[in-house]
Amino acid sequence: MSYVDNIDGESERGQWLDLVKHSQVEEIYLGQRAHFQYGCNEANTRCPADKPPSLALSHCCMNELSQGVKTVMRACKDHNMICELNDGTLLGSLKFEGTLPWEVDADLSVDSNNFTAVRDILAPYLKSKNLSFRDSKTYYRFYTPMGWFIEIFSISSTDTSRLSKAGISPTRVLLDGEYVATPESPGLFGRNRYGSEIYQHANHWRKRGGTSSWQFYEAGKFAECVKPGHQSCLDQFVADGSLRFNQNLRGN
113 FRET partner, CA 20 to 30 A, in 10, 16, 98, 119? Predict the structure, then answer.
C-alpha cells in the first residue's frame, strides 16, 4: 500500500502503473480524493510457492487463497457435507480473521462419512468454480488459478457433526468477512495444536526447513529479510499477535 500527498489536479489509475510495478504496491491512496487498486500481475507480486519466507504475501495473493477456502466451505455446506477449518488456516482466522500473511497453503478437515463425496461430488462441482482437483488417496487437494492448494483430510468425527447431533449450534469463526465452521473451541484447539504461544508469530514450517507441522515452532521471530528495507519484510514487524497486520488508513 502507498500513500501519495501533494498531487495537484486529477489523477487517473493508469498513470501510477510504473510506480505500482516498480514498488510492488497494490493500492494507492491519494488523500481523500482517490483510491486505486491493482492486481497481482500489475503489481508484479508473486504467490505462493516462490515467495521468500521473509516476505509477507500481497493482498491479492491472500485474497485468492481466502476466496478459495470460502468457495470450498460454501460448497461443503450446499452439498450437506461437514467441513471445518484446521491447522494454519484456523490459526489465521483466530489471529487476523483472514489468511496468515506468511501462509503457503490451506488446511480443511472433513467428516470421514463425507470423505469420498469430496472426490465424487465436490470435485466436479468446484471445477466450474475454477478449482482443479487432485486425489492423493489419503487426502485431496483443490488448486486455485494462481497455484494455491487447499488440502482436505478426513477425521473420524468433526465437532460440527457432534454438536449438531446434540442440538447445539456449531462454532463459527470469521474468515475474510464470512463465518465458516471450525472445531468447538477454536482458541483451545489452536493452543493444543501449536502450543501456548500461538499468538506469537512464526514462519511456516515448510519455509523454515522443517519436515512436519508437528515439529517445535520457535515463535516470536521472523526470518531475516532477503530484501532489507522492502515494504513486505516481515522482520520489520513485532512478531506478536498484539500487532494486527491490518490496513491503517491515514486521516481516519
Answer: 98
